[in-house]
Amino acid sequence: MVTPVKNTWKPTLAGVLNIVAGVLSLIGVLAIIIAIAFIGNSEVFLDALRDAGFSGGVSLLQTILAIVAVFVAITAILAVIGGIFALQRKRWGWALAGSIAAILCSSLLGILATVFTAISKDEFK
Question: 0.85 cut: is pTM over it?
Fold first, then answer.
C-alpha cells in the first residue's frame, strides 16, 4: 500500500522566496537600464570619466552594464519560473533550478528556497 504524500508549507515557501528574489532582481535590472541611459546622457558623468583618465569610452561601460543586466534578467526570470513551479508542486527539476538561480539573485532567499525545494521533492508531481 502506498502512503499518500502530505502537502506541507515547504514548497509554497520556496516558491514565494524564489518569486521575491526574482522580482527584486528584475527591479535591479531596471536600475541598471536607467544607469545605462544616465551614463550616455550625462555630461557631468562624461567629464568625470575623462578627468579620471578613463579613455575606454562610455560605450565600453554601457556594454559591460548591458551584459550584466542580461545575465541578471535571465537568472531572475529563471527564479520566477522555478517559483511558479514550486507553488504548483510540478516539475521539481525546474523548481530546483529556479531556486539555484535565486541564489544568484539574493543569496539568503535563494539558499532558503533551495533547501526547502530539495527537502520537499516528494511533494512534486
Answer: no
Average of pLDDT values for 43-63?
72
- On whether the CB atoms of residues 97 and 18 are closer than 8 A, the answer is no
Percent of the chain with pLDDT over 90: 58
Place of cell 539555484: 100
| CA–CA separation, 121 and 99 (whole Å) | 13
Tell me the domain boundaries of the chain. 19-120
Return the pLDDT at 106.
86
Q: Which three cell numbers stand for residue 7?
A: 502537502
